[in-house]
Fold this protein.
Amino acid sequence: MSDTLQKLQWRYATKKFDPTRKLSPEQLEYIVSVRRSASCK
């Protein structure tokens, strides 16, 4: 299995997070832009 595929399938990061840690506006914009680019059309 490719290294990239293994990393995408490793979902621990989505299961555990620190609710006190906040995203900066730049981080949020980056996430939104990546999501927008990944949209199926």
Remarks:
- The chain is about 60% helix and 0% strand.
- The helical segments are 3-9, 12-15, 25-38.
